Amino acid sequence: MFPFISAIAQIDTPGKYGAPFLNRDPEQGIKGVGSLVSVILSNVYILAGVVLLVLFLWAGFKMIQSAGTRDAQKAAEAKNTLTYAVIGFLIIFASYWIIQIIEAITGFTIL
Hints:
Elements: H1 4-8, H2 33-69, H3 72-106
């Protein structure tokens, strides 16, 4: 019915997409401390997102498990885990936007 859809799926779009550390040219290398910090921060944000996802899943599993056993202490621990994960996310989110604001004000590229 739609034979052209498979052809559209094969179209190459220009531009670089994906994780920030994959968009770096390996031939350029790391030219200084600023470049090293930029690479490290980009990877830390990705790692923080993965850790956040794992903590959300872990806290959700613990909440479900504590509801089945009706254990208030385990439910409180799961709630604390979820609370700390959200606080960590907010700190990472705020730090990313603070860096973006600094980049906009100074004109220097940090990430």
